[in-house]
Design goal:
Number of domains: 1
Strand order of the largest sheet: 1-2-3-4
Oligomer: single chain
Order of helices and strands: EEHHHEHHHHHEHHHH
Strand content: 5-15%
Number of strands: 4
Shape: globular
Structural class: mainly alpha
Number of helices: 12
Largest sheet: 4 strands, mixed
Length: about 325
């Protein structure tokens, strides 16, 4: 493996040297669950993520803070000799998971924008395509269609290029990086079986259990995917449809209902309120954290000034006592 073959995002790779395995993550393709699975194999402690001061809206989501991983290096940071030793031919299991493009863009739009995760509101909340807090099914349909139109018409916008929305082929670069296999989300049971077989060959004993992580309470309604929406999704994600073999425009998991219940819409409003409250608390905690750090720095400065002054006074008293004790004094 060479550096010029690696995925563009450094934090997307999770190297398990002991198990001779590498996971390359794709946002909104079971990546939260997969990262917790990898963290367990690597002996990462859940507590090291849970104490994060990031604005994630749930404990499970803190796993995405890559700087908190202690035992799982990135491919980009490996020395050249170690990197070159990694390949499927050398017995490494290199894998990724992808998702149907239509299901993935819906999931990204819902979890990050519709449910108003704080960091996303801060960055994109004033954009004309940012969704409303919905009160009706029709508003959700309109806002989702507006977003799909936006990423189709402005592909170079930071939101359209964000890892949660960008085509998966661009994140995984399978044309230049060699994988043991890239699995679809429907193939996760096969992935777990293949990974278990590989791990056992490395001396691992146990049973792989994929943690459940559901960040999106609303299943997409089939009615949202009108002909214009489907055409735009097919155009934006043409690489994914072709490279990963998605023959149908839409996934099988669509809800055929006409509309969401009042309870479902109320749950969205509740989750938005929770996200805003978490953001309030985290920002306040960060203020206290900065104030505490400034106070500690000030204390160190005062101590560095005080100690020499005390030392000089002590030395002066000692010198005077010695002088008084000398003969002729």
């Amino acid at each position: 493996m060479r550096r010029d073959q690696l995925p563009p995002h450094r934090t997307a790779t999770y190297v398990m040297p002991r198990w001779r395995a590498v996971y390359v993550s794709v946002n909104k393709a079971a990546c939260t669950s997969m990262k917790w699975l990898v963290a367990g194999l690597q002996g990462e402690r859940p507590e090291q993520f849970h104490i994060s001061m990031s604005r994630e809206v749930g404990r499970a989501m803190t796993i995405h803070k890559r700087s908190l991983w202690e035992h799982t290096p990135m491919l980009h940071r490996l020395p050249r000799a170690r990197l070159e030793a990694i390949s499927p031919e050398a017995g490494w299991f290199i894998f990724a998971v992808v998702r149907h493009p239509a299901a993935r863009v819906w999931s990204a739009w819902q979890s990050k924008l519709l449910l108003r995760e704080p960091a996303w509101v801060e960055r994109f909340g004033r954009e004309p395509w940012f969704p409303r807090v919905p009160t009706t099914t029709e508003e959700i349909a309109e806002d989702f269609a507006r977003f799909v139109q936006f990423i189709d018409e402005e592909p170079d916008h930071p939101m359209a290029r964000n890892r949660h929305v960008a085509p998966q082929a661009r994140l995984l670069v399978p044309d230049r990086m060699e994988y043991s296999r890239i699995y679809g989300t429907r193939e996760i049971p096969q992935l777990l079986s293949d990974l278990e077989t590989h791990l056992r060959a490395q001396g691992w004993e146990g049973k792989l259990v994929l943690p459940n992580s559901n960040e999106t309470p609303l299943r997409p309604l089939a009615s949202f995917f009108t002909d214009p929406v489907r055409e735009r999704i097919r155009r934006v994600y043409a690489e994914d449809f072709e490279r990963f073999g998605y023959a149908d425009d839409l996934p099988d998991s669509l809800d055929r209902s006409d509309r969401y219940s009042a309870e479902a819409l109320g749950e969205v409003a509740r989750l938005v309120d929770r996200a805003e409250r978490i953001n309030d608390v985290i920002l306040r905690a960060r203020t206290f954290q900065k104030a505490a750090a400034a106070a500690e720095e000030r204390a160190r400065e005062l101590e560095s000034r005080t100690v020499p002054r005390r030392a000089r006074r002590f030395a002066g008293r000692a010198r005077r006592r010695i002088e008084r004790a000398l003969p002729g004094r």
